[in-house]
Amino acid sequence: MPHARPVEAPRLPSWAPYVATGLVLTSLGAGALWTACHIAPDAVLHNAALFAHLTCLVVGFGAVLTVDWVALLWLARRCELRDVLRQAGHVHVPIWTGYAGLVVSGVMLEPDLSSPITRVKLAMVLLIGWNGLLAMWLHARLTEDPYRFHLGVSTLTASLSQIGWWGGDADRVRQFPLMHFVQLAAGQAVATCRCPARLLDMQVIACLWCCHGHCLSGSG
Question: What are the TM regions of this chain, as residue ranges (predicted)?
Fold first, then answer.
């Protein structure tokens, strides 16, 4: 009597876990929006959240740019594809840490959901998350078979990454009250400085910083 073959469990497509993660990510984003609409942080908490927001932007987007830079070196035939994959594998943690920090700190920034610009920015944040999952799927496929290069998907992923990161938080930089810290530091230095020449230099530098900050705030 022939032996019955064991029934193999159907395998999920390679992209299925990433889609499931994306759905969870979207649900968490909706929860973050609901939370943002039901809290009223004071000015101190708002400024602290804005500082954390910009810090996470530097961490996350900076890690993305390192991968893009190595990819450009590969296109210029200055390195191998495995170097790009290795760099991408090293920065998954800072990228997703920065992204999560952007979402959490953004809850404290009181987004105006009635503004079309805010809606576009929120769409960009969601785009970053889904595109990041696409990049992770692509990284796994290329790691398994680096000779099967998905040029179209890679180009799309890199383009969406730049659009999402630049479009999502470009205007937050000039909102941070940096001038207050510059004026405070300059005032403290002036108070402790004993050299008249240095005293004048510090006053001029503080004045230039303040004028520059006024121009930035007035240009928006």
Answer: 12-36, 48-76, 88-108, 120-140
In angstroms, rounded to a whole number, what is the distance separating the alpha carbons of residues 202 and 27? 50
Beta carbons within 10 angstroms of residue 142's beta carbon: 20
Q: What is the pTM assigned to this prediction? A: 0.70
Residue owning tokens 């073959």 = 5
| pLDDT tens-digit map of 35-45 | 998 888 889 99
Of 102-106, 141-145, 193-197, 211-215, the range with the highest mean pLDDT is 102-106
Measured CA to CA, the distance from residue 215 to residue 62 in angstroms comes to 27
Tell whether the model's pLDDT for residue 57 goes beyond 50: yes
Main-chain phi, psi angles of 162, to 5 degrees: -65, -45
**Cβ partners under 8 Å of residue 131, min gap 6:** 157, 160, 161, 164
Domain ranges (residues) in the chain: 16-176, 179-219
**Are the beta carbons of 130 and 25 closer than 8 angstroms?**
yes
